[in-house]
Amino acid sequence: MSKITTELLLERAVPRSTRLRKIETLNLSKLQLKTGDLDPRLFSRLRHLQKLDLSDNLLDKFPNSLTLPDLRVLNCNNNKLEDVTALKQFPLLEELTYENNVYLTLNDDYKVIFLLQNLRLLNGKDITKLANHVRRVNSRKLTSKVTAHWKKFFHDQLPEKYTAEQVKSIKKKFLKSVQTNVVYGPSSLSEFTRWRVKMIAEEFLANSLGLELNSDTEPEEKTDENEEESTESPREAAEDVAQVGDFSSYISNVTVTPSKRKRNHSKSSPGNKRSKTQANTEEEAAEDVSAEPLHFLQCHSKGNSREDFKTQLWSCVFEPVLDSGARKDPIVSSSRTVATCGGESVCLIDCETGTVLKKYKVATEEFFSVAWTTLTMVISDSRKKAHNILAAAGRRGIVKLIHVAADFCYGEIKAHKKPIATVCFSPTQETHLFTASYDKRIALWDIGIPDCDYNFKASQLLVLETASIPLRIALVPTCPEQYLLAGCEDGCFAWNIKLDKGQKSRPFEAIFQFPGEENMTTSHRVDGLAFLNDDVVVSKSSKPGCIYLWSWSKSFDAKGKGCQRTMSAVILAELEWSTTDMSYLTLSTCPAKEYVFCGDEKGSVWMYNLSSYTTAWGSPKGKRSERRISPTQILQWPELRVNGEQPPEILVNNVVADPAFTYLVVLTSVNITAIWKKF
């Protein structure tokens, strides 16, 4: 039996009423109401209801026919709503709040803004300007893209005289194709974009081909991106995690004069001369690269101070794409959203617009590293959805687990008693997280999968003992469940991490030695480490001006027995880099484009296109490149003036490209995040 009766409605009216049709304000909060309790037949008698409070209940959706023709204000805070599209039945709605519905995301905000043309306030904020963009600008852009997609790929597929079966077939293909390929706006809004694209495409087909809307409509395919919603109810968790707010992220009063971009070569010497073929290859590659600075952001300031040019920025990682359709399309294979960390905060930035989408703060922390994973979580009704989870760690030795779509830090792991230098997730085991610490240990954790109430259990699976502080870690691509590499303060080490071995605490299995100045092998600090492809390792050492490329398979003897063996790294090439002796300016790779990136002590980014070398290196008789490989291009730091003055000495601590090499994110020692775009 429903909890809602005529007597209850009359009693909860404000003020109390004797007739349902006279009720204008109704408070149904804190009644443990579920969707089935909202009886459309009973609610249809509330014809003059203008304000309805349904907060603090258990609603997961709205019935489609409540028939409240005069409803202007609706409060749905603290429920379990999963969808907002049924709210379109209240066209006169002006004020809507649904905060703390953990399954609703930014995509749902945009949906209700589009569906409710009279909406002025959403969750207490004036949306007038945003609504104009969503309802007009966004719709105009998407309509143009949908129309162009039809003309380019489908217009000629339909014969002049077509059967109903042909129409049904091409409609199905078109709707699937257009939702996969039409992209607009930030990746965080991809679900809304697909929703609008489908709507626009159906309207287009109806108008141009005379097809009825939703006739013979196939059920919308579930893609991973559909799952880009959230799951945490902010009960008492992480008071140190801030939700999205207004940030002073752009540096104020900035003058930017990009330096002339050209290929830079270090001092040449007879030993550095390249063959004509190599030079031509590099020149051709250089012509393909054209990048311009898009944004300079100051979003990690302590206390949001615009005068903070001291906070160091350390790590950035692009968010994985959840949409399985997008994954298959190389044009949209990577996200525009990047997570950055430094000082007391972690930020999520849209690289195209420069918008700080979310910001998390821990006042007593200094974050050194961030990493993404995608967990398939069980939500209500035993349904499963994929969500991106961000791990952030730093000076306190604690890993914060953040459910980004829900703006919520749902837990933490007290991983080490000393600072954590870097973290990374396994590419094959989504719950497996490696943490490398100043306590000279690398730990492997199973972070578990949180349930619908965000209960989770983390467990330590393995501890790898290091001889010195681990600075960078990388899993071997061909066997990520068996071997891990680490660049440490006194060398590069490898461990067997296979979990079927009984030993939980393990010493390193191998240490790699590199050429010294006098052709002798020696160990040294390795502060940059990444794989260029399945076999080629790129490592940077404290030796000035030197970045090594070496072969994992030719260097590591998997058949050898015993631990702590010394192996000589089989060098494939050396990259020419800055002669600075400054440490901890790390490197990164873009395997899909075969690029290596490394910043220097002057704010510049050294870029190496190695696509013309990798085939030869991969052959059985692959030989070492005798000459150092010069950078394809050096992006010089622009003449950047803040309040008329240049910032202090700029070190590039880290530089990372998205998988498609569309954006390049540069993290500096002066609290400036620079975003470049490749054209």
Describe the structure.
Residues 211-239, 258-290 are annotated as: Disordered. This is Leucine-rich repeat and WD repeat-containing protein 1. Residues 215-231, 281-290 have a biased composition (Acidic residues). It is found in: Chromosome, Centromere, Kinetochore; Chromosome, Telomere; Cytoplasm, Cytoskeleton, Microtubule organizing center, Centrosome; Nucleus. Residues 7-200 form the Leucine-rich repeat and WD repeat-containing protein 1 LRR domain. It is a single chain. By secondary structure, the chain is of the alpha+beta class. It folds into 3 domains: 6-123, Ribonuclease Inhibitor (Leucine-rich repeat, LRR (right-handed beta-alpha superhelix)); 129-209; 291-321 and 334-678, Methylamine Dehydrogenase, Chain H, CATH 2.130.10. Helices cover 16% and strands 31% of the residues. It is built from 10 helices and 39 strands. The strands form 9 sheets. It has a 6-stranded mixed sheet with strand order 1-2-3-4-5-6, with no helix packed on it. Strands 21, 22, 23, 25, 26 and 30 form a 6-stranded mixed sheet that branches. Helix 3 (106-115) packs parallel to helix 6 (190-209). The radius of gyration is 28 Å and the shape is globular. The termini are far apart.
Give a quick rundown of the structure:
By secondary structure, the protein is of the alpha+beta class. It is 16% helix and 31% strand.
Which descriptors apply to this entry?
3 domains; six-stranded mixed sheet; globular; 16% helix; alpha+beta; cytoplasm; single chain; Leucine-rich repeat, LRR (right-handed beta-alpha superhelix); Methylamine Dehydrogenase, Chain H; 679 residues; Leucine-rich repeat and WD repeat-containing protein 1; 39 strands
